[in-house]
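User: Hi! I'm a student and our assignment asks us to look at how structure tokens line up with a sequence. Could you show me two examples?

Assistant: Happy to help. In each example below, the sequence comes first and the structure tokens follow. Example one:
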Amino acid sequence: MKPIMTLMLVSELFFSIPVQAEVNYRVDLTQSQHHLAHVEVDFPRSDSQELTVHLPVWRTGKYQVLPLADSIRMFSAKDDMGAELPVSRIASGEWLVSLSQPTAVSISYQLYANKLGQRVGHVDASHAFLDASGAFVYSPEFRDEPIRVSMNVPSNWKSYSGMSAGAQVNSFIATNYDVLVDSPIETGINQHRVFSADGRDYELVVWGEGNYDIEQMVIDLTKLSGEAGVIWDDYPFERYVYMVQATSGESGATEHLNSTIIQRPRFSYRERDDYLEFIKTASHEFIHTWNVKAYRPQDLVPYDYQQENISELLWIAEGSTSYFESQLLLRAGVITIKEFLADLAKRIERNESTPGRKVQSVAEASVNQWASTGGDYAINHSANIYFEGFLVSLALDFSLLDNTDLKYSYRDVHKRLYREHKLPLGYGVVDVLNILKHISGKDYSAWWQSHVNSPLTIDFSDLLALSGLKMNNDEGAKVTAYSGMDASNTSLKLKHVLKNGPAWNAGIVQGDDIVAINSLKVSAGELKSRINDFKPGAKIEVTLFSNDKLRTVILTLGEQPLDKLQLISVKHPSRRQKAFFKAWLGIDWPFDKKGNIKDED
């Protein structure tokens, strides 16, 4: 009796364990030349009277509601016997499938994927890039179920993703929809490299021809990928995929769970300045693997794909990531200290010429990010979570270094956020303030109010002096004429008119068309040089069209520094300043006794 009873207990236990259902996606990409794909999704048995099916209304990494569902046509549903099921569209990204009895449900639709620049989906004769946000519907009922994606692609295509490969070629598996939506697929005619760094495996996939050097990319990405330990204790992944697209003009990048997609125009890699933009973007997205993907503001946990996820801490998610990007590259030896300081100077210069910094705090800019439209209005009336967020991070880093006698820095804040607030927890303002107090022994509430909750005001001279640096725009520096208006190189229609600048005060507005200065015609691309023909304080006649009416305006020119801002050494840096510099950037004092940067070769 005992063996029989044991067998009965084991059998009962086996059949009582719930078997996880699986959601299967099948994608046909064999007729891709017209940006079309066919998608089929098999959902497990549902006992409900209706099955809700969604396509996200935004994609992670872009805090903006997008018309993603417009790419779907011929949406239909069938039960497990192949019979058609009634479907009603109840929202831009929501369908309701009526069920008369429990059944599995199969969804079918045509997908139009021609949104390369938005990085939600692009299909053509040479490749397909599929981000689930713009390609794969899901049901909230089965969001946590395992997923399998199988693709039918041309025979010469190769497929890559941060997801694990499936048993069949051109297939992938994910533990749930959240992993799928954060693991885009690149399949097509591409170049592929593998490398390793600090015990982790990496891949580089490049689609598109261009003037890039893929072997140099591998060298520098290897250096970058091995540098994460200066901030975090470990890695949230075993394998990471850098996806790069050399495009016909689209640019940008998006972070994902253990991969990134980076886009740059195909001929913008060879020149050093272009390559620096590429490698800094790669660093930014790599850092996001921790800061956003492993820990993020609790208002974004879990992601709600069907509505805005508002948070006052997006400046940490984005601005602090920007703050660390060049630091990792400097420590890795990918960029020089001269290039690092030039980037920092450019950011300071931009901040000081952005009127919106005086209007909006980074906390308010974070909350407003979902409604932000950029452009002239944003420059004059908004802070930027990336640019001003970077500078708040700089100020916080310097404050921590100064208050802890160089023992702790802003890196330690992120180390603690990763240790203590990994998903599914997330963090809030109180959590950050608690970490700051624990590290420094000081209450940072007042600092937070003045730097985060109020428009940012930084005395860069005093701040930089802590590290032995100063700006080259001291009194006596050469100046040139300044109008406070800007047009593109191909048009004389004004893109920007800076608030309280000379043009603004003269009544000139964004959208006006410049015709002449002092009765002489102005051609496209020469507005700035024509302004530079005059001295600061000069009064000039500007002839323009405003609302299609011709008028002439008297504009009194202001002044601005002639040379670009540079960060240089103070005359006699102290031992403390040199130590501060090293604690900040991890490298020795780079200047010689004359204040010149030492030979970096």
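Example two works the same way, sequence first and then tokens:
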Amino acid sequence: MPTTDWLLATGERGNTATRLEHRRADGAAWSEGNDARPLVHGATYFAELLARIRAMRAGDLLLFTDWRGDPDERLGGPGTEIAAVLSAAAGSGVIVKGLLWRSHLDGFRFSEEENRSLSADIEAAGGECLLDLRVRPGGSHHQKMVVLRHPGRPELDVAYVGGIDLCHNRNDDADHHGDRQSLPLAPRYGPHPPWHDVQVALRGPVVGDVEAVFRERWEDPAPLSRSPLMRLRELLDREDTRADELPPQEPDPPRCGTHAVQVLRTYPNRLLRGYPFAPDGERSIARGYLKALRRARTLIYLEDQYLWSPRVVDSFARALRAHPRLRLVAVIPSVPEQDGLLTGPMNLIGRITALDELRRAGGDRVAVYGLENHAGTPVYVHAKVCVIDDVWAAVGSDNVNLRSWTHDSELSCAVLDLADDPRRPRDPGGLGDGARPFARELRLELMREHLDAGGGDGPHPAEDALCDPSTAFDRFGEAAAVLDAWHAGGRRGPRPPGRLRRYAAPRLPTFRRLLATPVHHAWVDPDGRPLGMRLRGRF
């Protein structure tokens, strides 16, 4: 299977200014010989991250970017608050550098004060954490990464990329009782919203690629904010807004696995002065999805926080129309995170139109589900995962909506396992591409959890049966139907296994649709591309 059939070849990224296009002597646009390992749930990720940071020594390098960072969020028990852990690392001689989105004002329910507090704590301990507002108006820095480098011990180098922020709500596990340190969502989620999320741990040469992404942002000479009010505040608070020089980048870690990994990104076309590493923006996440979707023949498995925007799901709809055996399973939040007069409908309007388009294209080959825990509380799906034909898999910070594909900074990793899967025949759909272990195991791990299938015991199919895309599609539908019927019947008798509920978008009164639609398109799902690209409908 030629790797270029699934991953973006050199030049297809659409951004020749990035060092990602020029890092390798052979000109490859991705790295091979990596080990990618999914970390499902914040508790799994936080426990590993805590152990890895505490094992670092003086002279090691810790880099991170985040959308929100809560200094008091615990990675484990008491004493493991993220500010304390990062400050202890900096105090012991680890070089700690961070980039946090500066955020809008807290009056808009974002994270300005939390990010400022975490930054100050790290600076006081000898690290450096900058508040970065180099975005388009209304945009955000949404990338979530941690890079740990160990000069002289490259076998320990690791990078983490995905959807999990270092903040409240994220420290949940497979039982989905929620993080004890919680921020409020819609009332139906309760005081401790259950939270489903995914990160990926990366070892091998790709660690150097993720580090290069950080360095490009860190070395951007533009001011951290162009807002006169923000710059005045920086002067009054005597904030240090100049990024200190980083130590030279170490050689990439040695090869250690069978995974080809391509780092994909979104950067907007920043007004007035573009990013030096992406002068016209970058849409490689969108381009990566479009290329992979053209090869989809059997099953698209998607977990996403939003699944908004007809213009984005059009690429999924085209694949469904072109291939009558192709199925799509999507797992999304069953309840919007907020449910005010406008915010609830605003969260729903883009999803309703997007799902309508998918169902017109695929009919009953499209199945959309929400999740609940065993107490019946909805689980907030924050994961950003896509698996296509058990061959191509992507895990990142990006959602399936226009913001993530055009407007905010995002970071994702597409993984192609170069080892064959011995448990599935080759050539599904005539492309010569058999299932690959990483993509297949990621899908199976997520599906088994949602079915309460465990290792294959009980009334649900063994994992070998779930390997078959049509069987997996049907089992999800059957499990959801049984659980829905149990709820409809008054929840009498033992609760059926599984956490899946058929997604049914509520009907919105006409006046609320009329109010929400323009706000949704103008703010929630803006198109940050230049006008010519908008008119041509290109990514």
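Here is something you could point out in your write-up. Residues 343-362 form the longest helix (20 residues).
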